[in-house]
Amino acid sequence: MDVQTWTYLLVGITFAIYIGIAIWARASTTGEFYIAGKGVPALANGMATAADWMSAASFLGMAGLISFAGYDGSVYLMGWTGGYVLLALLLAPYLRKFGHFTVPDFVGDRYYSKTARLVALICAIFISFTYVCGQMRGVGIVFSRFLDVDIFWGVVIGMAIVFFYAVLGGMKGITYTQVAQYCVLIFAFTVPAIFISLMLTGNPIPQLGFGGQVVGESGTFLLDKLDGLSQELGFAAYTEGVKPKIDIFCITMALMVGTAGLPHVIIRFYTVKKVSAARVSAFWALLFIAILYTTAPAVAVFARTNLLESIPNKEYSEAPAWLKSWESAGLIGWMDKNGDGVIQYAKGAAFSGKPVYKGDETGANGERLLTNAPSDGVNELYVDRDIMVLANPEIAQLPNWVVALVAAGGLAAALSTAAGLLLVISTSVAHDLVRKTFKPNMTDKHELLWARCSAAVAVVIAGWFGIHPPDYVAAVVAFAFGLAASSFFPVIILGIFSKRMNREGAITGMVVGILFTASYIIYFKFINPELNVKDNWLFGISPEGIGTIGMILNFIIAFTISAFTKAPPQEVVDMVENIRMPEREGEEMEVAEH
């Protein structure tokens, strides 16, 4: 069977499984819709957390980004894995002992303020929408290439699937769906990596293969070969970094503390039976995540090596079939600047922006003609980095079923995280905004209706962002981490470990942190993108890393304001002490409403 038939088959089977699970595990109460009734086993929650965590940014974006950034891409590995350790040790057990539904719930009660709850709610929705647009973009990319539909319709199909099982099943349905999605995505990610590792290095373990020797080239290590290929084409050596050290540090820190402040990850630890189960599920999740995260650098190296060997300095008529397939999907573009019919690939932009085609017009060599103005330099080829994982099996000429399996895995990764994010948005609106702020006497049935309607609206907005993304998948997600780092992390960590932190400090810190970070990102990414170079950055820090500065501002302002304003009431101090006390069997915190 061809790739498209295999893709329809595998994607159809996986979608049927997801929908079946959603119907089986549909939520009938707000407790089941928000936190799965607090009855999820630790192992299942670990798998669901891993699927929730390993989004399109991890599955599609991270390896693609590392394949282009090389050494500098290590910030994503260090930040995202280190952040999860931070979350598991410092936040998850304490928030589970607190025992409520959402992060704004914790902020509102810990800081005895509806205003604090509202600010946290706005931050949660803003962060979640920033994150979810990257997931929907990933869905559109997969559909556009493998199911031969436009990215617009790919996003629409993804919206429909997420809407069905997120709105029907709530957290209960999402949790068990994510268990299935983890199995699909990890199998889809590792199988091609094993195949390609064997082909390139003779080692079936990708984590060892990418540091091994090349088959048929005695004494040549794969990374040395990639360094040579890169330098021949004018790129920096793959194993050497070019980013300023301060930017490396800030991006890593923003990703790390942003992880610990992401509402859709934190809420997963509310779904287990008790605090000890939260710790155990964190262990399982970290183990499951490590499988993909230790494989991703190898996939990046394999993809980059195969790309540099199969395209540059070849005539377009002799180019591999996969290049023309991705060109048809609008994710690769070639502009023959010198008219020699040969694909030139080198450092620098090939032309202005992403490919914009002249309809179905073709050039002298059969390539799709572009309307983009040519840029300076000899580079003629544009490659969307988000396709590297998806294209890797095709580049390596693996069987069609493997190519289709990767497509199913990419969809599983994007949909699992999108569902978790949409749930955060719907619970924030229904529970924290409507019930806790405007309609405290609302019944569970009406709250559940509000939650489902909110999820429906959120799906539509997320789809729009997926069709019109501000950047490539991993970068968009990095912005969400920066926003979480600058807003939620300080207020949560201080809420647990500082009895002196009060509502005035927390609210002011959150507002300043997220406004500063969002303004910086918006300025360089939307208002003046042409100025988005390190010479114009504050202290040489990129928009991806500015969340670290926002976090520092948040901490400084929160401490300063708290020092000069009234201390929290005694019952809040007692609550903080209780959160930090070791768990007693059967204990569940009861928190007074403020």
What does this structure look like?
- With 594 residues, the chain is mainly α.
- The chain has a domain at 10-306 and 396-467: Sodium/glucose cotransporter (Up-down Bundle), CATH 1.20.1730.
- Helices cover 67% and strands 3% of the residues.
- The chain has 21 helices and 4 strands.
- It has helices spanning 3-24, 30-35, 42-53, 56-69, 74-98, 103-110, 114-146, 151-201, 206-209, 222-232, 245-259, 263-266, 275-310, 321-328, 388-395, 400-438, 444-467, 473-497, 503-527, 547-563, 570-580, and strands at 332-334, 357-362, 368-370, 381-383.
- It starts with a helix and ends in a 14-residue tail after the last helix.
- Mean pLDDT is 81; it is low at 585-594.
What's the SSE blueprint?
Blueprint: H1 3-24, H2 30-35, H3 42-53, H4 56-69, H5 74-98, H6 103-110, H7 114-146, H8 151-201, H9 206-209, H10 222-232, H11 245-259, H12 263-266, H13 275-310, H14 321-328, E1 332-334, E2 357-362, E3 368-370, E4 381-383, H15 388-395, H16 400-438, H17 444-467, H18 473-497, H19 503-527, H20 547-563, H21 570-580
Antiparallel strand pairs: 1-4, 2-3
Helix pairs in contact: 1-8, 1-16, 3-8, 3-13, 4-7, 4-13, 4-16, 4-18, 5-11, 5-13, 6-7, 7-8, 7-16, 7-17, 7-18, 7-19, 8-13, 8-16, 8-17, 10-13, 11-18, 11-20, 13-15, 15-16, 16-17, 18-19, 18-20, 19-20
In a nutshell, what does this entry contain?
The protein is mainly α.
What keywords describe this structure?
mainly alpha, two-stranded antiparallel sheet, globular, single chain, disordered C terminus, Sodium/glucose cotransporter, 67% helix
